[in-house]
Amino acid sequence: MIRHFGVFQFKPEISSSQIDECFSELSGMVGKIPGLLAIEHGPYESDEGLNDGFTHGFIMTFDSAKSRDEYLPHPEHERVRSIVAPRLARLVVFDFSL
Predict the structure, then answer these.
(1) pTM of the full predicted structure?
(2) Which positions ≥6 away from 57 have C-beta within 8 Å?
(3) Fewer Cβ atoms within 10 A, N terminus or C terminus of the chain?
(4) Nearest-angstrom CA–CA distance, 96 and 98
(5) Class of domain 2-97
(6) SS (H, E, C) 28-70
(7) Three-class SS of residue 92?
(8) pLDDT of residue 77
């Protein structure tokens, strides 16, 4: 299994309803993209203060590296990315195997 982990910093003008829409669209990819098993997400919730301005995070679970690789150019991912990416000031993504 592959975990595809990311953190978002949304642009200041992006509303909470627009943020909710982004995560709704991301969650909606499960069942549409083969091998994408689950998406978990949420806002930063620590007093530690080490988030470097990132406000939200997500973890996607793929059944294999092959599925993750096929997800990247998948039309549904491209559609969702066209909604999410313009609302971001910064993004970091990191993948690891289980």
Answers:
(1) 0.92
(2) 5, 6, 7, 8, 41, 42, 44
(3) C
(4) 7
(5) alpha beta
(6) CCCCCCCCEEEEEEEECCCCCCCCCCCCEEEEEEECCHHHHHH
(7) strand
(8) 98
- Give the DSSP letter of residue 87: G
Backbone angles phi, psi at 14, to 5 degrees: -80, 125
Kindly give, in sequence order, each residue whose CB lies less than 8 Å from that of residue 41, ignoring residues fewer than 6 positions away.
23, 26, 27, 56, 57, 58, 59
Bridge partners of 81?
none
Contact 12, 87 (CB under 8 A): no
Q: How confident is the model at residue 48 (pLDDT cuts 50, 70, 90)?
A: very high
Name 36's bridge partners.
Answer: 62
Confidence (pLDDT) at 22: 98
89 SS3 class = strand
* Count helices and strands in the chain by DSSP H and E runs: 3, 4
- % of the chain beyond a pLDDT of 70: 100
